[in-house]
Design brief:
Low-confidence stretches: 357-362
Oligomer: single chain
Distance between the termini: 24 Å
Shape: elongated
Number of helices: 11
Structural class: alpha/beta
Radius of gyration: 21 Å
Order of helices and strands: EHEEEEEEHEEHEHHEHEHEHEHHH
């Protein structure tokens, strides 16, 4: 079975996501999916937007012009642009965010999303999608990266931001951080992700969002309670999650599109860093089962901040929620996700073969 993954939407060099150069996210999940596909004995090519050819861990990375145009299955990752270029009897449209919506213009297109909310939201924006087949397969996490010992490595008062900065980071610099510091004066905020790198790549942000991020950086300068970290390796990222007590997710869906599965939320829960979010968009679905603290929608950022204050001030409350969060997160291992992915591949592959058999002359 020949499989093509179209990853041109992620830019290049895409293979950096497989070498520990990136903390995680949907790109890393796509790489893991490709690896799982290859373990089925399939011929897997990842078509990226650059000019270089590369082969890593049995996967071929090819520029569009040098990639095969025909395959048994084409997986389109966030990019419908090449749907007509690559030909296959079966397509999977892998939606790793709430943006990049498209209807399968080719027959036999199956959509894969990471949460039910994501699919419902996509159908609201593009009603034609509602008639197309889809599967909900959550990304899952590498549970082996989160030993129990992480729970004892906490730095008192450490607050973590480990999502893309354009998803509401600047809200801390309005009055929410001062609100938290008034009650928890020993608190410190660590900002992960490639913050400064993002400011150098502002093509996907509107001017208003860019200005807010620049203002956040200016606000953070000279403060001893806010640390903007440089680009981290996976190992360094795990250390930050291990040391932080809480991850209040002041999510504001602007340049990032619509959040569909915040992987860092589940990872933080596994590390004993309690995630906190309001019941908005996919968050109630993702946080169900004790993964974190969910606050009412009408409280929004104030409720999230107050919940963080409560956990940081009450060690007993924090320990109880920490245990619940970790227990829920460890049930969301990457193996469950990959099993579901492999099952879907086999079902689609078998279905396409049955169609070929029906359509063949006697």
């Amino acid at each position: 079975m020949k499989v093509i993954f179209d990853v041109t939407a992620y830019g290049e060099p895409f293979w950096e996501h497989w070498r520990g150069e990136w903390p995680g996210g949907s790109e890393e999940a796509v790489m893991t999916i490709a690896q799982a596909t290859r373990r089925l004995g399939d011929d897997v090519s990842l078509v990226h937007g650059g000019k270089e050819e590369q082969r890593l861990d049995g996967l071929s990375f090819l520029p569009v012009g040098k990639a095969p145009r025909y395959a048994d299955l084409v997986v389109l990752c966030e990019n419908p642009g090449n749907m007509g270029y690559f030909r296959a009897p079966q397509y999977i449209a892998l939606h790793t965010s709430g943006s990049g919506l498209f209807v399968g213009t080719e027959p036999d297109t199956h959509h894969v999303v990471f949460s039910k909310f994501q699919w419902d939201n996509m159908c609201r924006h593009l009603p034609l999608l509602a008639s197309e087949p889809y599967s909900v397969i959550a990304i899952g996490i590498h549970t082996e990266d989160y030993p129990y010992e992480m729970l004892s490595q906490k730095v008192r008062g450490r607050v973590l931001w480990c999502s893309s900065p354009d998803r509401g980071l600047w809200l801390w610099s309005s009055h929410y951080w001062e609100m938290l510091k008034k009650e928890v004066p020993w608190a410190t905020l660590h900002v992960t992700y490639d913050f400064n790198g993002l400011l150098d790549r502002l093509r996907f942000l509107c001017d208003h969002e860019a200005q807010q991020l620049y203002e956040f950086r200016e606000w953070a300068k000279g403060r001893d309670d806010v640390v903007i970290l440089p680009r981290l390796s996976r190992k360094e990222f795990l250390k930050e999650q291990a040391e932080a007590q809480v991850f209040p997710y002041l999510y504001c869906p602007m340049g990032a599109g619509t959040e569909c599965y915040p992987q860092a939320v589940v990872e933080c829960a596994a590390a004993g860093c309690v995630p906190i979010a309001c019941d908005w968009e996919c968050m109630g679905e993702i946080m169900a089962g004790g993964l974190g603290v969910v606050t009412p929608n009408d409280d929004h950022y104030i409720g999230v901040t107050q919940a963080a204050i409560g956990l940081l001030k009450d060690d007993g409350l924090y320990r109880r929620q920490q245990g619940k969060s970790r227990k829920a997160a460890m049930k969301q291992g990457r193996a469950v996700f990959l099993d579901a992915w492999v099952k879907l591949l086999r079902e689609l592959h078998n279905a396409s073969h049955k169609q070929e058999a029906v359509g063949s002359p006697a």
